[in-house]
Amino acid sequence: MIGVFIVLEGIDGCGKGEQIKRLHNFLFEKDKRNIILTTREPTYGTYGLKIRKILKQEKDPYENANLMLDLYTKDRKEHLNDTLKPFLANVKGEIKKFVLCDRYYHSTYAFQQTQGIYFDKIHELQKDFPKPTITFILDLAPEIALSRISNSRDTSEKFEKLEFMKKLRKNFLELKEKLDEEIEIIDASKSKEEVFTQIVSILENKKII
């Protein structure tokens, strides 16, 4: 793939959506020639819709681990083939293309590991997917994340349980050491403005933007 592929990750409630929105606007204002795709996983495609249905209907976060791994992997293949690869191909001249993705394979490593699947089994299914240019893991205490979630909507989803999220946070943080790629961990307990400033500073220092 050609272009810049930026992923934001973390437990639910960490503020990924807000930071992606800010980054999209920032990149457009920085240079209006920039072409920006904002996307997310799970998608609203064939497998993504099945995932979303399960997330809303199931209550036990440890249930159907292998099914979730299979669906997330198939959804990712569909997302890459139908959306990401076509968008990032054929970059010409000084025009820059950016993909800003809310969740990618890092979530599969973290969530399905927390569900009880061994890292190596997950890795075998994810290792051939294209690596992002950079991934930001927004780190937040689960207690704060759940408080944010309860303030924004009435119902919780399958994985939004405190003990599960504590293990999940740990698995997210360990990805920086386990995966051979560019991963930055951001303290998401700070204000939205401080979090965004840190993200932009890293991107500029690394000459990604």
Overview of this protein structure:
This protein has 209 residues and is of the alpha/beta class. It has a single domain, classed as P-loop containing nucleotide triphosphate hydrolases (Rossmann fold, 3-Layer(aba) Sandwich). Helix content is 53%, strand content 14%. The protein has helices at 16-30, 46-57, 65-88, 105-114, 119-126, 142-152, 162-178, 192-205, and strands at 4-9, 35-40, 97-102, 134-139, 183-187. The chain has a five-stranded parallel beta sheet, sandwiched between helices. It is globular, with a radius of gyration of 17 Å.
Blueprint of the fold:
Layout: E1 4-9, H1 16-30, E2 35-40, H2 46-57, H3 65-88, E3 97-102, H4 105-114, H5 119-126, E4 134-139, H6 142-152, H7 162-178, E5 183-187, H8 192-205
Parallel strand pairs: 1-3, 1-4, 2-3, 4-5
Which strands sit side by side, in order, in the main sheet?
2-3-1-4-5
CATH fold description:
Rossmann fold
Indicate the proportion of strand residues.
5-15%
Helix % is 40-55%
The overall pLDDT average reads 95
Largest sheet: 5 strands, parallel
Low-confidence stretches: none
- Quick one: overall form? globular
- Report the CATH superfamily: P-loop containing nucleotide triphosphate hydrolases
Total strands: the figure is 5
What does the oligomeric state look like here?
A: single chain
The ordered H/E elements are EHEHHEHHEHHEH
Quick one: CATH class? Alpha Beta
Radius of gyration: 17 Å
Count of spatially separate domains: 1
* Count of individual helical segments: 8
The name of the CATH architecture is: 3-Layer(aba) Sandwich
Rounded to the nearest angstrom, the distance between the terminal CA atoms is 17 Å
